[in-house]
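General statements about sequence and structure are easier to judge against a single worked case. Part of our work consisted of pairing the sequence of a single chain with a tokenised description of its backbone. The amino acid sequence and the backbone structure tokens for this protein are reproduced below.

***
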Amino acid sequence: MGTTISLVGIGLFAYLLGSTPFGFLIGKFNGIDIRRVGSGNIGATNIRRALGRDWGILCFALDLLKGLLPVLIAQAVAKDWNIGGETAGLVTALMTVTGHMWPCWLKFRGGKGVSTTIGALFAIAPVAVVCALIVWIIVFFTARYVSLASVCSAVAMPLAHAVYSPFRDRPFLSPTLLLLAILASLIVVRHRGNLKRLLEGTEYRFGAKRKRP
């Protein structure tokens, strides 16, 4: 019972931290509602388009740290709360990303979770995250679509972890692989609008000038 209560507390803590809408707050600081600008997303990509590179980098860094720090904290206090470090980290990662995607402060309309997922999973499966980042770079600089790069890198995370696990004498099927698969699926679903525009040929391509009406 005590373990269950501890996990619920950790999950709630992670969700609330994940719900902190840094992109929205950055927009408000600059006098705009980022939800009404560009794609309407509160993530770093839309912030960069609306406010410039520096604000986009800041938003990415804050969203990444928002994913990383709660997991590190949960892993550190897990022993004191009689919880396994792996379990605490997995629950925290899932709830932090959930908070970012569906923040209670913005009527459960949040970002797509890429930056926060990278941060959260870096504390759990760093090799998979590094492989995903390599895939992101390759796809982005080849196709120049942020959304396509994000989706491909998300799919690469569980695949990389599955391939790498046997080399570390870890079982192929594990709670970590399940979490990676869940988060990758959520990211793909959150990009369904982008994928539709990619198929239609109307998705924004990085560096392309928008046509004026």
Q: What stands out?
A: Residues 1-124 form one domain. The longest helix spans residues 53-77.
